[in-house]
Amino acid sequence: MQKNMFFDYFGKDCFAAVTEEDRLVEFHLDFGEGQEIAGNIYKGRVVNVLEGMQAAFVAFGQQKNGYLYAGDIPLEAGAAEERRLNVRVGEEVMVQVSKAPMGSKGARLSMCLSFVGKHLIFIPSADFCAVSRKITDEETRARVMEYSSKLCAGGGGFIFRTSAQNAELRVLKDEAKYLRGLYATALEAYRNAAVGDVVYRDADLHARLLRDFDLTAVDKIYIGDAETFRRVENAFRQAGRKNKLVRYAGAREMFDFYRLEEQVYRLISRRVELENGAYLVFDRTEALTAIDVNTGKYIGATALEETVFETNILAAREIARQVRLRNIGGIVVVDFIDMQSEEHRLAVVEELERRLREDRAKCNVVPMTGLGLVQFTRKKVQSDNVAMLTKKCPYCKGSGMVLSDSYIAFRIQIAIKKCFAEGYENVIVELNAGIFAYILTRRIFSALARGDWRDKRVYLIPHKTYHEEQFYVRGDNNPVLTLPDTAQLLY
Question: In angstroms, rounded to a whole number, what is the distance separating the alpha carbons of residues 460 and 486?
C-alpha cells in the first residue's frame, strides 16, 4: 500500500496530511500564532541572578523572560550532588521550555535538554537509563533494561517510554541514532544563532508527526516549505535515516496539486457519502459526537437484512476513518441501522474495533445495545479538525439554522406595529431583497394594509447585501420623505 506524508506552511500555519493510495487518512492543522512553545530549545541570555532563590531570569526571545532554577542545570562532571546556580549575568545559555508561560508568569526553563521520540526520551546530559513506571511487569522491565547498554554507548542517557516494551532492539537503535542527530542539529544551530532564536522546535507539527509515525511504512515525505525541508533533511542525515524526502516546488499549491485540499474541504460537511449510496451524518454536541447511519439511495440486491448488514459494515469502516481524519475525541455514539441477526450485530462491532485499532489514538468500544447503538471513546489529542477549520456562524450562532422567511416577516410586522403604536404615521423598513420579494409576492401584509394600516404608509427598501435575517425598521412623521429610488410603498 502506497503511504505518503505531506507538510506545508501557509504563513505560520502548518498543514499536514497522510494518505494511503492517494486517499486522505489523517489531516492535522497547527496555527502558528497560538503555537505551543513547551519543548522548544532557544539560545538565551541570563539577565538576572537571584542567589537567595537559587534562580535566574533568562531572555529567550519571548515577551516575558523565563526563569531557570538551579535544579534545572546539569551537574558538572565530578561535582557534588548539590545543585548550584552556576550561571552569571550576560552568559549565553541553551535552554528548553519545560513549562509554558501562564498569565503573568514567564516560562520555566531547563538546561537539562531532552529529545522525545516514539519509544525513547534522549537526555544528553544524563549518564543513566530508566524505564517508564507504566511498564509494571518485572520481566518486561528487565528485558527493556538489557537494551540500555547498547543504546547508551554513544553517550547520554535514555528513558524507555511505555511503547518501548513492544519495540525491537533494531527499532530502538534507529530511534536513538535519530534523537542524537536532533541534538547534534540543535548544537549546530545554537552556534550560529542569535539570542532569542529557536534552535530546535519540538512543538512543530511536522516534528511531532515524524517522531510519532513509523516511517518505515512511509514511502515518500513531501515538504513544500524550503526551510522545513532543510531542517528535516539535516535531521535525517544526522540520524543516518533513509532519505524519503521530496521537496515540492511546483507552481500550484502542493495540497491542490496532489488533490488533498478537496478532501480536506469535505471534512466540514455533516454528511459523508458511502460508496454504495448510503451516508453518515455527524452531529457534535458539547458532551459527545453522534453519528447516524442511513441507507440513502442504496436498496440492495437481496433481502433487507443483508442490505442493512452490508451498509453497516461499510459505515463501520468509514466511521473509523472519519474520526481519525476529523480528530474527534471523547465519547462517540453511533446509531447503526437495526439488524435482526445477532451474528451480524457482533460482526459490525468487530469490524469497527478492527478499523479503530489502526488509529494512533487509543479507542475503546462498548458492545452494541438492543437499540443498535454503539458507543466508543477516542483519546482527545487536540481540537478536532472541523472546529479548527471553521468558526461559528455569526448569524445562526452555531445552531446550524437560520430563521424561516415567514418568521422573519412576522418579526418585521411586530416592529412596524410598534412604530405605529408610538405615534408614527410613516414607517421605513430596510430589509433583505429576498425577504422583500417574499412579502410582496405572498402579499403578507395585505390584510393589515386594507385594515389597521389603511391610513398609514409603509415603505420597503430592499438590499441585496443584507443577510436574510437582517432588517431595520424606523418611524418618521415628516410630511416629505427622502428615500432611495428602490423604495416601494407597501401595496
Answer: 8
Nearest to 43, CA basis, from 191, 148, 172: 191
CB-based contacts of 472: which residues, under 8 Å, 6+ apart?
A: 429, 430, 431
- Residues 385, 386, 389, 391: is their CA dihedral positive or negative? negative
Give per-10-residue mean pLDDT for the chain (491 aa): 92 90 91 72 94 91 91 69 77 91 84 90 89 87 85 85 85 87 91 92 79 85 92 79 89 93 92 91 90 79 80 95 92 93 93 92 90 90 78 79 92 96 96 96 92 93 95 94 92 74
| Cα–Cα distance measured from residue 408 to residue 402, given in angstroms and rounded to the nearest whole number | 10
Residue indicated by cell numbers 453522534: 290
CA distance 225 to 248: 8
Q: How far apart are CA 352 and CA 316, in angstroms?
A: 5
Helix axes 342-356, 304-325, angle to 10 degrees: 20
- The per-residue pLDDT for range 469-479, each reduced to its tens digit, is 999 999 999 98
E strands, 254-367, are 271-273, 279-284, 288-294, 330-335, 363-365
Helices (H) and strands (E) in the chain, counts: 13, 25
What pLDDT shows up at residue 395? 79
Category of 380 on φ-ψ map: left (φ > 0), alpha (ψ -120 to 50) or beta:
beta
Closest CA to 458 of 469, 468, 467, 449: 449
pLDDT the model gives residue 81: 54
Whether the CA torsion 202, 206, 209, 212 is positive or negative: it is negative
Residue bearing cell 539560545: 43
Task: State CA 453 to chain mean position distance.
Answer: 56
Asked if 358 and 217 count as a contact pair (C-beta separation under 8 A), the reply is no
Question: What are the φ and ψ backbone dihedral angles of 112, each rounded to 5 degrees?
Answer: -90, 90
Q: Per the confidence metrics, is the pTM higher than 0.85? A: no
- Output the CA torsion sign for 229, 231, 232, 234: positive
Percentage, residues of the chain above pLDDT 70: 95
Tell me whether strands 373-378 and 363-365 are parallel, antiparallel or unpaired.
antiparallel
- Residue 253, classed as helix, strand or coil, is coil
Q: Which domains does the chain have, with CATH numbers?
A: 41-110 (2.40.50.140), 113-201 (3.30.230.10), 270-389 (3.40.630), 405-489 (3.40.1260.20)
